Amino acid sequence: MDTLPDALIWDILSRISRTEDRNSLSLACKRLLELENEQRLFLRVGCGLNPANKALNTLCNRFPNLMKVEIVYSGWMSKLGKQLDDQGLLALSNSCPSLADLTLSHCTFITDAGIGYLGSCSVLSSLKLIFTPRITGCGILSVVVGCKNLSVLHLIRCLNISSAGWLEYLGKLEKIQYLVIKNCRAIGEGDLVKLGYSWRNLKLLQFEVDANYRYMKLYDRIAVDRWQKQLIPCVNIKELSLINCIIMPGRGLACVLDKCSNLEKIHLDMCVGLRDADIVGLSQSSKGLRSISLRVPSDFSVPLLISNRLTLTDESLKALAENCPKLESVRISFADGEFPSLSSFTLGGILYLIRSCPVRELSLDHVYSFNDDGMEDLCSACCLESLELVRCQEISDEGLQLVAQFPRLSVLRLSKCLGVSDDGFKPLVGSNKLDLLVVEDCPQVSERGIHRVARNVSFKQDLSWMY
């Protein structure tokens, strides 16, 4: 080993990915230990760090070139010892000059003072905070001001972080590209307009509202009317996910949907107030759209915008079919409690979309309008490779048997479908048509009944959902 050049040993170490193997190798000799310490770029620690601050300081001194650090206290209990606190983050910021990516998960001892130390990490470009309840908007502002190259920011269940100050400052830097805000109760849809010109650089936006918290509050039309218009185009967004959001015509997020000219993937889940006009505008501007997921709320989900029609119609599906020639993944779902008469998409509208676009993946959840006739029409879907049916109660064995005639289908998933039984799978037994079959919680289907239906079979039966 003494005669081998450092470059060769570095190359050998770079080919060993498992942390356990690298740790074992570093014990072989002092030279390997030193070189492995220099090459270690990633560190993940958590409940086993005790005493936390001292142990982290030791690790940072041992691995001087760390670029990515994850500190995860999920499942922590007091008997495991004190968590890492503000002094631990001070040691991290002082000892890791190359730190570019930091994740803090369930770090309940860290406050604004601790997160403020990260402002000295000049190369920090990615920060992910998951349930850090003592951090507020002031702490985030100190990071944003100090870390001018911050391009990735995730805030998940950070209950005390408001939008005051930091969101506007982040927008002025025009560096943010990946922004994820989920269940941060003090940040609303109307606050996102503060990003200003940074909308032009965003590549991914995921925004989720804590629905249970919102519905407990008085959230009237006057509050929504105060939202500003979003005028700056979102030309670089490729992925957009909005969950439990309010879509107010002409304001807030409604202004975003028709400005994403390079959008490839969109997920709209329980977005109250979403109209056909929003989907039409989206389809006309996002002609490169490849994936769309729509979960439509019940008419009774939220009384907020009751004067607006809450359900989408076939007009939306027609617009997608005519304007998005690259669409290959479609998921349509209705919220629990939706009545069959209120299902806004008809069988004709769904099939028109499937026939017009090269759809390879189709998922339907709680779509009452989809029945055996729909399965028969899918026999002509030459691109369809994966089909998922969840709580589609109008599908019977007669429709299921048609799967044998689907030209390219290789993956089939069924969940909570009451109308199918073992008989529906008989034409597929031993046919080797399917690569994967997943059956979950279908009361009339047995594990024996799907034996040899596909190369790989997964079966689960839990009927508690019925009671």
From TrEMBL:
Annotated GO CC locations: SCF ubiquitin ligase complex
The record's annotation in PROSITE patterns points to: FBOX (PS50181)
Query: What biological-process GO terms show up in the record?
Result: SCF-dependent proteasomal ubiquitin-dependent protein catabolic process
Checking InterPro entries in the record gives:
F-box_dom, FBXL15_LRR, Leu-rich_rpt_Cys-con_subtyp, LRR_dom_sf
One Pfam family it belongs to: DUF7885
Q: Which residues form the F-box domain?
A: 1-45
Q: Which PANTHER family match?
A: F-BOX_LRR-REPEAT PROTEIN 14 (PTHR13318:SF182), PARTNER OF PAIRED, ISOFORM B-RELATED (PTHR13318)
* Name listed for the protein in its UniProt record: F-box domain-containing protein
Q: Which organism is it from?
A: Chenopodium quinoa (Quinoa)
